[in-house]
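Handout, section B. The chain below has 151 residues.
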Amino acid sequence: MEEQSNIIIRKGTSDDIPAVFSLVEELAVYEKAEHEVVTSIDLYQKLYKESLFDFFVAEERGKVQGIALYYLTFSTWKGKMMYLEDFVVFPEERGRGIGQLLFEAVIEEAKVLECTLMKWQVLDWNVDAHRFYEKYDAILEKDWWNGKLFF
């Protein structure tokens, strides 16, 4: 693993939204679903200003290399919950510990905000991600199906 000393993890700002959107598009390509992205940078800007979500960026020499985008929600069984919506590092930057730094920043934020639970999704075929989360003793549920409606 390469030295992480040049990596800065910080809360994102509206100026980072274009980089965030670029990484979300990168994630969609990785997940073979780029045709499903119907949002835009303008929509991200609007919803960020409405405080619908927040995010961390991993920055190196002024360039965003990865993001962790999350929002708060509620679990009727557990209480205040953080949902990690997107967590991605540019492919050429993976394996350097950037994901670890971002993930740990989100975990710390969840603790600071007094969340009792943090949830996310991971695709069944993404074995590298499974291994990453298992290092944190994360529970990867396989018995729940996702439901959704589009409007």
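Note. The longest helix spans residues 98-112. Compare this with the example in section A.
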